[in-house]
Amino acid sequence: MKRFLMLISSIMIALIISNCLFAQETIDRLSGKNQKIHYLVKSDLPFEVTIKSETSSKGEINYIFENFDYSNYFQLEKGGTASYRINPTEKVKKIIIKLFEGAILIDHGGKLVKASEMPQTASQTNQPEPLPRGSFIADTIWNIDGEIIKGKIYLKDYMYRYDMTDERKRKIKIKNVGAHGITQQIIELKNLTIIVNKKTGKEIAIDHEEKNYYESEGLLFSPLYNPSESFYIMKSTFSEHYKVVDRGSENIGQITCDKKDLRYGEILVQTIWISKKYNFPIKTINYIEGKEHMVFELKNIKETSVDLKIFEIPKVYKKKEL
């Protein structure tokens, strides 16, 4: 799991090298909830965004580049510090700090642009997604360019658990269509469980090999390891770039679904089928240059009672800090 955490922090470094103008460093104080501050950054050298927590702080940093976007969630306790080193391939359009709650100091290389001076985007008016409902157990098939990953999902209303039951250790390349191009990451498959509470937005990742677990206030692990969240993550995080196109109703097996396309301009990025009954994704297809790259589908859905114990963490497992 430590390797996975290093992968998350190194994705942007793996994709980037810089060439812009240096702007003076400033310090700004944030407090309260649901605030959004925009920073314009220009630099011809690598620079760091450093977040220093005065109280417990939770939020998200969105890096908006010319050729790709990157998002990183953070959670800091009082006195905590986290630094993110950026080395962009092309000009940084802006950095967006989204503070969910708490109060923090931000040291950053860049010029502050007040939120009121920035154009309003769709992400600021998005309505919350309806919560899942019902109770079922299902098998999952994740097909990434012919690489098959098996798993299982347990849904109980607004909570669900996703297990990777395919324990063959291997590395798989995943491609994504970003706002301005195609990016790719290599993930290392693990014996991993992800538990998501859709009401609170909290996530737990359980590493069965190391017998430990991590808790996150946002979806830190799902962007790479949980395809059930991919549509919602892309739609909400980068709503100024993507648009959702309703395609009406369509059945997946015996399940009636709302079919939706996610597009960037005329580019088809993803098609998703969301069960009307459960309000939960039944099938997702990601496209690269018009071809199917990744298909994730629930199979053998069995409507049954799901015991809350399925969401408990084994007592012998140790909690690790992010």
Structural features, described:
With 322 residues, this protein is mainly beta. It has two domains: 2-119, Jelly Rolls; 135-319, Lipoprotein localisation LolA/LolB/LppX (outer membrane lipoprotein receptor (LolB), chain A, Clam), CATH 2.50.20. The chain contains three helices and 23 strands. The strands form four sheets. The protein has a twelve-stranded mixed sheet with strand order 18-19-20-21-22-10-11-12-15-16-17-23, with no helix packed on it. β20 (267-275) and β21 form a beta hairpin. The longest helix is centred in the first third of the chain and has 14 residues, at 2-15. The model is unreliable at 6-29, 31-36 and 110-126 (pLDDT under 50).
| Oligomerization state | single chain
Secondary-structure element order, N to C: HEEEEEEEEEEEEEEEEEHHEEEEEE
Question: Which second-level CATH architecture of the largest domain applies?
Answer: Clam
- Average per-residue pLDDT, rounded, comes to 76
Q: Total domains, how many?
A: 2
CATH topology of the largest domain: outer membrane lipoprotein receptor (LolB), chain A
| Envelope shape | globular
> What is the makeup of the main sheet?
12 strands, mixed
Low-pLDDT segments: 6-29, 31-36, 110-126
Our measurement of the CA-to-CA distance between the termini, rounded to an integer number of angstroms, reads: 10 Å
